[in-house]
Amino acid sequence: MEQRSIAVSIKKVSKRYLHQGREVPVLQEIDLTVPQAAFVSLVGPSGCGKSSLLHLIAGLDEPDEGEIILHGDSKSSRAGKCGYMLQQPLLLPWRTVEENVILGLDVRKTPRKEALEKARDLLKRFGLADFAENYPATLSGGMKQRVALLRTVLFQNELLLLDEPFGALDALTRQTMHLWLQDLWESISASVLLVTHDIREAIFLSDTIYVMSHRPARILQRYDVDLPRPRKIEDLSQEHVIQLEQKIFAQLMEEEKV
C-alpha cells in the first residue's frame, strides 16, 4: 500500500509559559503526525495544552524544544499556512454570510469577483446558498458554525485546525454537524486536526485519535479508528467502537485524578 505523505509532523515538542514570574510546563515532548487528507483528533483533560499545541502549529507561537514540520518544511514561518477555527464562530455581524465566508480571501486581496464565485460554490454545495445574504444575527448556532467552517476551508483547505468547533452546540445539532463536516472533509480532501472533549465525536470523525495526559501534556496513547467511510451515526453502536470509547474514557478519568 502506498504510504500517505505527511501534512504536519510534531517531533519532541515542548512548551513552557511564564505565569506569575515562574515557568509552567504545558507540553512535554509531544510526538504526532497528521497524514495528508487524514482526520486526526486530540482528546485530553481540560487545560492540558491541546489548544496550545494548535497555536504552535498555526505559527502563533514557537516551541521551546522540538520541531514542527508543515508540508515537509520546518524552517519557514507557519503563519497563514493553515486554516484555524476556534470554538466560537466569530462572524462579523455587519457582513453577510457570503461576505463572512470570503473574509480570508479579502485579507489576501483576492479579486472580489473570484472570491465571491468560490464562496457561492461552497455555499451551494453545502446547503447554505439560501442564506448567502443573511446576517449572522439571523442564523442558528449550527448555521453559524457551518459558515465559520466554510470560511476556514476557503482561507486554507490543505490543513485545518479545529478547536472544539461544536462544543457550544446542543447534542442533536452536534450530531448533524458531524455528518455535515464528514461530507465537507471528504469533498475537499483536507488534512484535519481536531481538538475535542467529546470522545464519540472523535471516534465518529477520525482516522486516528491521540489521547493526551494532564499538564504538562504528553501523548498517552494513539488509537486508529477501524470504521469504513462514509460513516453513519449508528456505527457508534458497534461493540468494538463502544469498547474503544470506554478505553479512552477510562484513560481520561485516570488523568483527572492526577
From TrEMBL:
One of its GO terms (molecular function) is ATP hydrolysis activity. PANTHER family: ABC TRANSPORTER ATP-BINDING PROTEIN, TAURINE IMPORT ATP-BINDING PROTEIN-RELATED. It comes from the Bacteria. This is ABC-type nitrate/sulfonate/bicarbonate transport system ATPase subunit. Pfam families: ABC_tran (PF00005). It comes from Thermosporothrix hazakensis. PROSITE patterns: ABC_TRANSPORTER_1, ABC_TRANSPORTER_2. Residues 8-239 form the ABC transporter domain. Keywords: ATP-binding, Nucleotide-binding, Transport. The keyword Protease does not apply. CDD domains: ABC_NrtD_SsuB_transporters (cd03293). The lineage of its organism: Bacteria, Bacillati, Chloroflexota, Ktedonobacteria, Ktedonobacterales.
